[in-house]
Amino acid sequence: MSEQWYTNKDLFELINGLRSEMQETRNVIKKYNGLREELGVVKEKVERIEAKTEGRKSVAEAIRLWGGWLFALVTLVVLLITKI
Question: What is the pLDDT of residues 54-79, one digit of tens each?
């Protein structure tokens, strides 16, 4: 009943194998965390660029929508001043 399944040498080799696998796992986790941080930075940059683009688009649309009215108002003022 007190028969050992593994020798001490076998157990030592198994534990060393597990240690190296755990070290590899730690390295992979570190790389993953670094990539997550980089992804967060890139995501923020993309959001800023999209916000700028959206702002420019809304300004351009406002100019397009109200540009005619502004031109008409300026023309009316110029005509009224030249009549006087």
Answer: 999 999 999 889 999 999 999 999 99
